[in-house]
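Appendix C: a fully annotated inverse folding record. The material below is reproduced so that readers can follow the format used throughout the book. The structure is listed first as tokens, followed by the designed sequence.
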């Protein structure tokens, strides 16, 4: 029976899974019509709906960075920043940045025990393929420098309550091959459905970002002919050569709009993914248990396959798994790349096997649709601490500090008040004074302006900040007070980590959804069998070879687990292996294969080489007659020595009991 192959049946829109690269349907010209303008208006409305979140995020970032006197206040009808008001009072805008240490601590907690995606198949017999996909996913993670990217995304998540990644499959010019990629999308460039309520954003209808690129990059991406180049140059005729006078300017990103590029030398492209409805065939193939969607045009192809299976069943008298299908109106993602003027540079049905948009995002905590960050929770306490510091500075500067009170009658006739003051502060100075009845002696006044409760108020606000963030002194590694038992301090550290668990687990869920899309990209675009160099020592040799034929029809899921590549974990494992070796539960080869000692690989290779020589009677093997002679010279009362001789003869690597 000629059966439809998966390359024929697995059709996503107009792009077949299995092609080396998706065949992008080209627009005959860069049209601008009502449809594209409506999509652009929807994108603009969604972008504007995020204005409040962008403004609050910019304020949170200011406080995190240390610019904590930038809020606008009104004084006598005049608007000014708090810092400007303090400078007009002749005082510096002092601050003690207590926001950044808790954030750095949480990032350090993540760095010390990072997350790791483990891929597993739905069928137990496909575990080799699962291990193979796990290795492939780790390779993509390493190629994208995932540790650094995730750490920075976690920092953004704690400051802005938003983490956003864009996934894609594109050519890597350094590695000279295409690979799955993921990159962070700034909140100021991102937009999505403002009516979403689901914590994972599964109910959104539109999503996208504003991208700036040079004119050369634009032409290399979208121009497929000389006429396309001419049209694009006309559309972006306002682009000018320009070099910015400032670098690392955060205000450029904060002042972005959807339609205006960041700089006049850049071209703005609005990438939009929007759900549209189409009639599709919902096909259930009982041969492999898959549910798939196909275009209506493939109805005749599927019916022909059904007839072929029915014929095969009648001719051979056997039951053949059949295909069931039905027509259904399905919501599907469609991709558009638009210009600010409403021209369509590129449009396509969904080119990816995951049948979704390429973005992964996380907003926290999505409580009844509300979003706020950990840094935002700390701002009020930070402002109170800063005000207490400023108040202390005001009080000290306005207090008497060694003021000298001198009655005029006590000043000698031959001295002025200046001479008196100079002699007063002189080392070993002598002042003659006139004493009269009722006239007080000169007196120096020093005001005690420290015991006003300000320090207690500052300590109280710091304690409030620790309670709000959950980052207490124990989890920060601060020294415990005298007499604190080690077990109690360890328990306090464990309990303190529970306060930040929700942030870390939410971020782990975000990474899990990103990795799932990466898995689908690997499954879709990796077509050649190749050796995976990042397999490591604890991976089977079969899993180090990526075989696309083996994983083509396997359904994968992934789960996030805590990373085990930490010094503490390796120390525990090595200690356990050492005990098993001494107890004769494992051989020296097994010990070296699974331990993390620096010399393990080299020593294991030497042992295997020596074993081969012993097996072949090579130079490394001892003559049996020589061994017998040595055994005769060994005292029979020494079991350890006899065991040593036995090891030399047999080549055993078993330990010897002392």
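Designed amino acids, in order:
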């Amino acid at each position: 029976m000629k059966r439809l192959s998966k390359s024929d049946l697995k059709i996503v829109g107009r792009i077949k899974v299995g092609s080396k690269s998706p065949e992008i349907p080209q627009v005959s010209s860069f049209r601008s019509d009502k449809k594209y303008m409506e999509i652009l208006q929807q994108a603009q409305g969604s972008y504007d709906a995020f204005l409040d979140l962008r403004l609050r995020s910019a304020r949170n970032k200011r406080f995190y960075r240390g610019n904590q006197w930038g809020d606008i206040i009104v004084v006598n009808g005049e608007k000014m920043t708090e810092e400007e008001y303090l400078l007009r009072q002749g005082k510096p805008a002092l601050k003690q940045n207590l926001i950044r240490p808790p954030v750095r601590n949480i990032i350090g907690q993540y760095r010390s025990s990072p997350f790791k995606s483990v891929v597993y198949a739905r069928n137990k017999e496909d575990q080799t393929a699962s291990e193979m996909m796990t290795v492939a996913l780790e390779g993509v993670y390493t190629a994208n420098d995932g540790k650094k990217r995730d750490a920075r995304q976690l920092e953004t998540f704690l400051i802005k309550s938003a983490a956003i990644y864009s996934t894609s499959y594109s050519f890597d010019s350094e590695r000279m091959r295409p690979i799955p990629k993921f990159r962070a999308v700034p909140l100021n460039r991102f937009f999505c459905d403002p009516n979403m309520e689901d914590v994972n954003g599964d109910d959104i209808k539109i999503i996208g970002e504003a991208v700036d690129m040079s004119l050369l990059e634009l032409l290399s991406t979208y121009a497929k002919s000389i006429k396309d180049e001419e049209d694009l140059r006309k559309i972006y005729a306002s682009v000018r050569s320009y070099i910015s006078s400032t670098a690392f300017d955060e205000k450029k990103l904060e002042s972005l709009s959807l339609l205006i590029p960041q700089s006049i030398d850049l071209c703005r492209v609005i990438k939009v993914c929007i759900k549209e409805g189409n009639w599709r065939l919902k096909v259930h193939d009982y041969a492999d248990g898959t549910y798939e969607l196909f275009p209506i045009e493939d109805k005749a192809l599927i019916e022909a396959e059904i007839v072929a299976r029915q014929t095969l069943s009648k001719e051979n008298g056997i039951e053949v798994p059949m295909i069931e299908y039905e027509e259904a109106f399905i919501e599907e993602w469609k991709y558009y790349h638009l210009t600010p003027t409403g021209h369509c540079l590129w449009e396509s049905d969904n080119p990816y096997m995951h049948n979704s948009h390429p973005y992964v995002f996380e907003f926290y905590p999505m409580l009844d649709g509300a979003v706020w960050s950990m840094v935002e929770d700390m701002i009020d306490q930070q402002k109170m601490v800063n005000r207490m510091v400023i108040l202390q500075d005001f009080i000290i500067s306005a207090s008497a500090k060694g003021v000298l009170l001198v009655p005029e009658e006590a000043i000698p006739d031959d001295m002025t008040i200046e001479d008196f003051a100079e002699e007063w502060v002189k080392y070993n100075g002598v002042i003659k004074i006139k004493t009269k009845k009722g006239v007080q002696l000169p007196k120096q006044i020093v005001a005690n302006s420290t015991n006003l409760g300000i320090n207690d108020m500052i300590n109280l606000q710091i304690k409030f900040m620790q309670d709000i963030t959950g980052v207490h002194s124990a989890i920060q590694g601060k020294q415990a007070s005298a007499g604190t038992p080690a077990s109690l301090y360890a328990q306090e550290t464990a309990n303190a980590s529970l306060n930040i668990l929700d942030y870390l687990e939410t971020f782990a869920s975000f990474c899990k959804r990103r990795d799932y899309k990466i898995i689908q990209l690997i499954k879709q675009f990796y077509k050649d069998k190749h050796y995976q160099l990042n397999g490591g020592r604890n991976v089977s040799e079969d899993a180090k070879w990526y075989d696309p034929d083996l994983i083509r029809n396997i359904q994968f899921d992934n789960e996030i687990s805590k990373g085990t590549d930490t010094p503490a974990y390796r120390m525990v494992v090595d200690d356990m292996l050492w005990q098993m070796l001494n107890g004769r539960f494992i051989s020296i080869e097994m010990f070296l294969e699974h331990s993390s000692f620096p010399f393990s690989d080299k020593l294991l290779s030497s042992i295997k080489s020596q074993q081969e020589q012993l097996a072949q009677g090579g130079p490394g093997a001892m003559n049996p007659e020589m061994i017998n002679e040595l055994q005769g010279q060994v005292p029979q009362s020494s079991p350890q020595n006899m065991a040593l001789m036995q090891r030399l003869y047999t080549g055993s690597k078993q330990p010897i009991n002392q």
